[in-house]
Specification:
single chain, 231 residues, mainly beta, 4-stranded antiparallel sheet, 3 helices
Length: 231
Amino acid sequence: MSLNKITVLFLVVSLTVFSQKKITIEDIYSGAFRTKEMYELQSMKNTNQYTVLNFDRATRSMQIDLYDFTTLKKVSTLIDTKDQKELADGIDSYSFSKDEKMILIANNSNSIYRHSFTADYYLYSIVTKELTKLFDFQVQEPTFSPDGKKIAYAKENNIYIYDITSKQSTQITTDGEKNKVINGITDWVYEEEFNDPRASGNPFIRAFDWSLDSKKIAYIRFDESQVLNFR
C-alpha cells in the first residue's frame, strides 16, 4: 500500500471517528442506547400476524399490538391500558380464545414459585371492546375451552369452570388442600425440572386441559399428604 493511500485511509477514519456524536453520561442513563425488546410475543393462529405487549413511556401505558409477519409493521392496537382504568396497573400476560376474538388478561400478579403465580384476570372482547373483571379473587392458569364458552381455572388446589354467558363458576374438585392434595397445578419441582410438552421451553405449571368438544377436563391429581415439609 502506498503512502498516499495510507494517508487518505487515515484521514477518512479520523473524520468518521470525530464526526460521531460523543457519548455522555446523560445518554447512558436516559435510555438513549436501550435495546429494543419484544414482550409476550404470540403468533396468531388464524392470520399471518403476531401480537406483542408494548409499553408507551410517554403515556405510561401498555398495549397489545398486532403486527404483520410479512411487513413487520403494526396493523392495529387490540387494547390500550390508557383507555381502561381497570388496568391502571398494566398487563402482566395475556392469552387468546381459539377464535382469537377474546383475550384473557392478567395483572397484579403474585408469585408462588419462580414461574407460577396467581393474578387478577379480565376478559376482553376484541369485537365489542368490553372489558370484564372475572373474579373478586386471584386464580391460576385460566384457560379457554375450545368453543370459547367457558374458562377453567385453579384456585386453592382445586379446579373450577367459569361459564362466560351465565358468569357462574362450578367447582369440579373438592379435595384440594395445601401441602396435601393439588388438583390441576404442579408443585415446585415440576415447574423447575420439566417443560410443558404443549409449549416447548415453557415451565410445566398447568396440569389440566380441555377435551376438544369442550365437555370434559382431564387433570393430574397430586397426593402429597405423605411428603414432609422442610424449612
